[in-house]
Amino acid sequence: MSDSQHDQKTKAEQLRGKLLAAWDKTRVQAARAWGKTQVQAARVWEKTKLVAAAGWSKSRVCFERARVAVARHPVSPLLYVTVLSVAIGAIVFNGMYSRAYVLNIDGEEVGVIANEAELDAIVSDVETRVADILGEEYDYDAEITLTPAYTVAGEVSDTDAVAETLFANVGALVDAYAISVDGYEIGYALSEEALEEMLDEIAQPYLTENTVSYEFAEEIAIYPMQVPANTEFDLEVLKSTLTSFEVEEAKYVIERGDTFNAIAYSLDMTPAQLKELNPDVEANTLFVGQELVIQQAVPYLSVITVANETYEEVIESPVEYIETPDLYVGNTSVKEQGSDGLAEVSAQVTYLNGVEQERTVTSTTTVQEATTTYMYKGTTPKPVTASKGYFIWPVSGSITSYYGGRYIFGGYDFHLGLDIACPYGTTIKAADGGTVTYAGWQGSYGMLVIITHDNGMKTYYAHNSSLLVSVGDKVYQGQAIARAGMTGSATGYHCHFEVRVNGASVNPLNYL
Ligand SMILES: [Zn+2]
Hints:
Layout: H1 3-72, H2 77-96, E1 97-105, E2 108-113, H3 116-134, E3 144-152, H4 159-170, E4 173-181, E5 184-189, H5 192-203, E6 211-216, E7 220-228, H6 235-242, E8 245-253, H7 260-266, H8 271-277, E9 291-299, E10 303-315, E11 319-328, E12 332-336, E13 341-352, E14 355-368, E15 373-380, E16 399-401, E17 404-408, E18 411-415, E19 418-421, E20 427-429, E21 434-441, E22 447-452, E23 458-464, E24 466-467, E25 474-475, E26 480-483, E27 494-501, E28 504-506
Parallel strand pairs: 11-15
Antiparallel strand pairs: 1-2, 1-3, 4-5, 4-7, 6-10, 8-9, 10-13, 12-15, 13-14, 16-19, 17-18, 19-27, 20-26, 21-22, 21-25, 22-23, 23-27, 24-26, 27-28
This protein binds zinc ion.
Zinc ion (ZN) is lined by residues 401, 415, 417, 419, 496.
């Protein structure tokens, strides 16, 4: 058995458990109702027996009276002849006919039976069958009358046929419709429409004005069948079971930035619960690509909807490149910015429980054409990022503060670099080739770039308004690395330039 088959089996078993609980309740209710009926039925039955008995003894009395009358009176020849012919008639009658009972159920004649014992056997047979179907004791409840009669010998009804009629009269089985999910019968209703309506209601939350069709991912069948009369047709119970969420195990692949606790909380679990599912995983040593066992809530029935959707989509401006030796290879600049266009798109979109699975574009109409963007593309080979061993000025401008001790912000301070004034946004260049080892905010430096050069020297570029490089970037001498600003502790737009040897600051002017 595959995992998914096993899951489905478990799913069906769980559902069956729920339904059985509901079923037991129904039985208890039915049993109570039946207790009452039983008493009534017993009364009717006693009455019937009495009526039948009275009828029989009446006819016997009549017969005996006739004989008595014959015995008491002097016999006239005529009377003798008469009595004789009656007697002969009786003998012939007794030979041709036998005593029997016409059986009436609720006023309907259903057959002729030989005796009361036969009726008892039939009723007991029907009661056993009905009890088996209903899963509870059952006493036959109908108005039964037996009318004494004579019938042609051997012409009593077949008891099986009579039993069948009585059984049908009970109505132990009723016509209904069953619904199955993936082959498991899960409920019943009196009509096919009721079940279909219920399915519509289950799908309803996933339907939008654009939905053209829906179906369930599971195989659902509705078919006619006879069910016990005491079946409770509670579609609300069935519906709530089918719309309930169940927990399924799934795999989660660790992505960059994930933490064990964040994953747990995003799944509405505590880290301890997640740990229980992953006993061998160390929360502090997650690695990208590692798999975690997680639990997911999935609806019992999955709704697949298909929608026809129309929406606007941006047509990106196509780009044409013009080569130029004025730029390094890999660098570009805009010559003429084109504009994006607009298209009206129609698509058929398939969703599973509201989550898009597939999108097929059926038509695209251009509302507004895009225009071409022309860009320059560099052809000059990029300078090597290897350090040249000397520094160029990161920016040109007047020096507003030199390296060394100074009075600033109301106190003495040792200034670790050079402050070179320049307008806001001026390009700050790498003094020599190297590797960016810091790019970000650092206290009073504000937005800072540190480049480590091949000989281990470091250059600092502080107070920038924005950075153009990231840690790890290889940069060449003169490459734009930042834009000037006054972030951190600064009183005007400038570049604070520092040179460090073995971690200690030195006077940059000695290297420029
Ligand atoms: Zn400074």
